[in-house]
Amino acid sequence: MREELLAILEKNSRIDFKELAVLLGVSEEKVLEEITALEKDGIICGYHTLINWEKTSIEKVNALIEVKVTPQRGQGFDRIAERIYNYPEVRAVYLISGGYDLLVTLEEKTLKEIANFVSDKLSTLDSVLSTATHFILKKYKDHGTIINQNRNDEREVITP
Amino acid sequence: MTKPLSEKVLNLKPSGIRKFFDIVSEMKDAISLGVGEPDFDTPWHIRDEGIYALERGRTFYTSNAGLKDLRQEISNYISRTQGVNYSPDSEILVTVGGSEAIDIGLRAIINEGDEVIIPQPSYVSYEPCAILANAKPVIINLKEENEFRLKPEELLSAITEKTKVLILPYPNNPTGAIMEKEDLESIAEIIREKDLYVMSDEIYAALTYKDRHTSIASLDRMKERTILINGFSKAYAMTGWRLGYACAPKEIISQMTKIHQYAIMCAPTTSQYAAVEALKNGDDDVELMRKAYNQRRRFLMNAFKEMKLDCFEPYGAFYVFPSIKEFGMTSEEFATKFLMEEKVAVVPGTAFGACGEGFLRISYAYSIDNLKVAMERLNRFITNLRKVKQ
Question: Which ipTM score applies to this complex?
Answer without folding.
Answer: 0.86
